[in-house]
Every structure is written in C-alpha cells, then in structure tokens.
Amino acid sequence: MSKKHENNVTLDAADFQIVNYVPNSLVITSGQDGDQPASITHKAPKWLLSINCGRKSSSQVASQWVKDTGGAKNSYAPDGGGSPPPSELNFFYAVDVTTYSGAKTRLYLGQGNHGLTNNWWVGGQDVVAIDNKAVLAVGSGDSREDFSLSGNHETIVFKKS
Q1: What distance in Å separates the CA atoms of residue 29 and residue 42, rounded to the nearest whole number?
Q2: Rounded distance between C-alpha atoms, residue 55 and residue 43, angstroms
Q3: What is the pLDDT of residues 57-109, one digit of tens each?
Q4: To the nearest 10°, the Cα dihedral for 50, 51, 53, 56?
Q5: Distance CA 11, CA 23 (A)
Q6: Rounded to whole angstroms, how far apart are CA atoms 121 and 159?
Q7: What DSSP state is assigned to residue 58?
Q8: What is the pTM of this model?
C-alpha cells in the first residue's frame, strides 16, 4: 500500500459557476492508492480541489493524459512545464466546469514534478497551448468565452480575455 498525501490545487476563476468532479476519473501510477472523489470548496473567486493519493510519477499516466486531453497542444503547466505535454505525471483527474454564461467544458488537472515541488497541469479539448502560453476557449458563437491561463505550482489562474 502506498503512502497517500493531500494534494491541493486552486483554480482562480471568478467566471466559473460550477466545478464538479467527474466520477471515477482518477488516473494514477500503478501501485499507488487514491481516494475519490476530490473534494471541491468554493470561496469566490477561487476553487480549492483536494484529493488524497500517492505521488509516484510515471510515463504511463502522462501518456494517458495526452490521450484524454486531446493531444500535445492541449496541456499547460504555469510552473515548470509550459506548453509541451508532460513526460511524467503522478496522477490526474477530470472536472466538468460551467461558466456563469452557461458555457461548459471538461478540464483535466494533473500533478507532476518540477525541481523540489509538485506542479499542476491543466488540459482538455478547449485548452490551446503554444509557446508557453495558453488559452481556454469554451462555448461558441455569442456564448464563446476565452480565458488566458497563468499561475504557479499550486494555482491555475483563468483570466477572461
């Protein structure tokens, strides 16, 4: 049995109305344990997501991340990752997001390693990352919303463009 740790990530997202954990979405390195679902606490404008699980990294988890998020250009880490997809991750899980305008998207949140810290990745079909910059583009037509992404090793900021 692996040692579990509390793993927290903050989404600084004033325009997110609903953030829900996708049941059974945790992908974790073989031999590691994890408790589902992630807990989600909203203290506007921030969302704190916490999950207890092991932290051993693997390329298998990163490979599944690339498949689930939609490809190499659909991943971003504000600290220690930029825009190429991760080569190793400890784990990841999915959340469904609804903005106040009603636009919906599925985001993937993954934890990797950078230097002496664990860093967080965000990905999904609506995340576009090029040259260490990323945008989340959700909805279409008049209800389309674009968010520039930034942050640090424990917070991902979604700023409406």
Answers
A1: 28
A2: 27
A3: 999 999 999 999 998 899 999 987 666 789 999 999 999 999 999 999 999 99
A4: -60
A5: 19
A6: 16
A7: B
A8: 0.95
Tokens of 109: 């949140």
Please state, in angstroms and rounded to a whole number, the distance separating the CA atoms of residues 7 and 108.
15
Which two structure tokens, joined as six digits, stand for 84? 């190429």
Radius of gyration, CA atoms only, the chain: 15
Residue 111 Cα distances to 29, 46, 53, angstroms: 11, 19, 11
**Residue ranges of domains in the chain:** 5-160
Report the SS3 class of residue 79.
coil
How many CB atoms lie under 10 A from the CB of residue 21?
19
Cis peptide before 78 (omega within 30 of 0): no
Q: Which residues pair with 145 in a beta bridge?
A: 138
